[in-house]
Amino acid sequence: MLSLAEKIIFALIILGTAALFLTPLYQRFQIVRSGHPENRFDRMGKRVLHALSKILLQRCTLKNERLLTGFMHVAIFYGALTFDTMTINHTLEGFFPDFYLFGKTGLGDFFSLLVDIFAVLTLGGVLFFIIKRFVIRPKAYATTPLDSAFIYTALILVTLSYLYFEAFAIAHHPESMRLSFLGSSFARAIQAAGMSPAFVAAHFKISWWLHILLVFGFIAYVPHSKYLHMFTGSLNVVFRAPGVSRMVRGLDLEKSEVFGIEKALDFSWKDNLDALACMECGRCQDACPAFQSDKPLSPKMILFNMERHLLKNKKRIKNKKRDDLPALVPAVHTEGEIWTCTTCGACMHVCPVEIEHIQKIVGLRQSQVLMESKFPAELNAFFRNTETNSNPWGIGFAKRADWTEGLEVKLIQDHPDAEYLFWVGCAGSYDEEGKKIARAFATLLEKAGIDFAILGAEEKCCGDSARRLGNEYLFQTLAAEVIELFSQYKVKKILTICPHGFNTFKNEYPQLLDLVPAIRDQAKAHFKAIAVYHHVEFLHKLIREGRLKIESQAVEALTYHDPCYLGRHNGLLDEPRELLAGLTGQKVIELKNSREHSFCCGAGGGLMWTEESLGKRINHMRAEEVIQSGAPAVATACPFCLTMLRDALKDKGKENIKVKDIAVLLVESIESGIKPSPLAKL
Ligand code: SF4
Ligand code: SF4
C-alpha cells in the first residue's frame, strides 16, 4: 500500500512516537523508584488478577455514586481498546498491503462490526463528557480543562478519521466490506455520488495517513497528560493494600532521621505512584466531608498538587537533592488542608484507582508534630493530658472505674482468669454519655453470663487520636504500655465499645510488634493471640447464639449512623442493622449516606479534640440527614459519633430526636419487659 519512501517516513513516525511516549514514562518511573521502599510485591499473581478483573470489568468506575458517568467511561474504555487493536491492524497494513488482523474469518467479521459499534459509543461517551465538563462544570472536574479539551478533540478526530478511512477503503476495495455497517453505508454514498476511481484511491491513501498521524499524535500526547492514568492507574490497582485506610503507616522512631513526610523525598514509591495515577475524576472530593463542609481540604487537590510538585522537581528527586527541595507544608500543602481531615476514608473508598490519601495527610501531620512542633493550639491540652493522665480530658486514673458504681463489675487484678477483658476506653470511662454505654454493655454482658473484667485505674488511652494527629511517639509509647499490660494479665479476648479502640487493637497494634523495641518478645508473642471484638459484633453473636434475648418493638423506628471506623474501615455494616431490626421489628431507615458511603460525624482523625472553626460543621451536615430521614431516633455504635450527633441535633433545636448507642437501646428494650419476638435475619 505504501511506497518505499512512505514506509521509511512511517517508520520514522513510529520511532518518534515511541520516543515521545517512552521519555515521560521513564521520567515518571524514576520518580516512583526514588521513593522509600514499601513491600507491595507479595502475592503478585493475585494482585494482577484482581487488577485485571477490576479494570476489564470496569468495576473501578461502575460505582453507585456516578453510575451514568461510569457507563460512559466504559464506552470510551472499550472504544479505546477496540481502536487500539485496529491501530495495530492499520499500522501493519501500511507495511503489508491487504493485511487484516483477524483474516477473512468470522472473528474478523465480528471485529469489523465491533469497531463501528464502538465508534458510535465512543463519540456518544465523549459528547457526554464534553457536556458534563464544559457545560455543567461540576467542581470535581475543575482541574486541567485544556488537557481534557485536547483529549476529547483527539478522540473525536481519531474516530471520525477512522470512519473516513473505512468508507474510502470499502469504496476502493468493495471486497473488503464486512459487517462494518457505518463504513458500508458511507461507501455506498460515495459510490452513489459517482466519485471517480482515482479520487476514491487518493482519498483512501489520504484518509489512511490522516488517521495514522492523528493516532500516533494521540499516543505521543497521552503520557504528557492526565490520561496517563490508563497505565499508572492500572498499576496502582495492582499494588493496592486492602484495608490500608484503617492503618497509619508505622514509623521507626529509633532508626528514622526524618519523621513522617516533610519533603518529596520522604514519600514511599507507592505514594509517588498514587500521585501519578490520579485521573482527576474528583470522586474523592465529592465524597469528602471536609470539602463538602467548605474546609480548605480536597483529597483530589492533595494528589494533584503532589503530582505537580513531583514532576516539577523530578531532577532533584532523582538525584536525591534533599536540601534543594522545599518543605511540602506550606510550599505544596497548607496547614488548613492537613488539619481538617477526619481520616474517614470516604475518599479512598470511592477512588477508582485505589489511591491512598490518608497516608499522605497523616504523614504530613507527623512531620509537623514530631519535627516542627506545629499543630493547632488546642491540641496542646490534648497531648499534655494524654501524656500525663492517659486520657484527653486529663482526669485522674483513679476515676476510670467510677462508671461501675452500682454494678458488680470485677477488676482484672481481682479476677485474672476472666475470659474477656472489657476495654472501656477514655470516652466510656470519663464522658457522661460514654459511661451510659459502658454501663449498658456491662449489664448486657452480665445478663448473658459472660465472664469479664476491666482494668479500672490501670487502663490507659489506646492512642488512636494521638496517632492520627501525627504524634506517633505518643501513640507508640501508649501502645507499648498497653501491650505490656495485656501480657501482664494474660488477656485472651478484648471487648470494646469504641470503634477507634477496636480498630487500633485489631489492626494497628499488630503492625507495631516488629517496630517498637520497647515491647518485650514475650508480650509480642502474647498479643498475637488476642482476639478483639467491637460490642456490636459481640452482642450480635450473643443474640444469634441465644445467650442474650432482646425484646422486639420495644423502641420506635430507628435510623442508624455508621461510624467510619466500624463500617467503612472494618466492614461491620450488617450486624448493627440486624440488631436494630430485631429491636424495632422493622428495617432500619437508611440515611442519605449510609453503609460504606456513610458521612463522617466530624470527630475522626483526632478532630474531636480540635476546634472546627472553618466552614460548616460536619456534625450539623450529618444531623441534617438524620432530620431528613424522618426517624424519631438515631442509633449509633461509637461514643464520639454519639456526642457529635447529639450536640448537632441540639444546636438545630431537634433535641426530640434521640441519639442512642445500640447497647443502651438493647438494655432499655430488655428492661421494658415487653415479650420477645423473633429477630429478623439473626
Ligand atoms: S479521609 Fe475523609 S476527610 Fe480525609 S480527605 Fe478523605 S474523605 Fe476527606
Ligand atoms: S484521587 Fe482517585 S477519586 Fe480522587 S480525583 Fe484522583 S482518581 Fe479520582
What characteristics describe this protein?
682 residues, mainly alpha, 3-stranded parallel β-sheet, 4% strand, elongated, disordered C terminus, binds iron/sulfur cluster
Our count of helices gives 29
Low-confidence stretches: 674-682
Shape estimate: elongated
> How many whole angstroms does the radius of gyration measure?
30 Å
Protein model, in words:
With 682 residues, this protein is mostly helical. The protein folds into four domains: 199 residues, no CATH class; 125 residues, Fumarate Reductase Iron-sulfur Protein, Chain B, domain 2 (Orthogonal Bundle), CATH 1.10.1060; 124 residues, no CATH class; 135 residues. It has 29 helices and seven strands. The protein has a four-stranded parallel sheet, with helices on both faces. A three-stranded parallel sheet has the order 5-6-7, sandwiched between helices. Helix 2 packs across helix 8. It is elongated and about 100 Å long. The C terminus is likely disordered. The site of one iron/sulfur cluster has 15 residues, from helix 10 and helix 12.
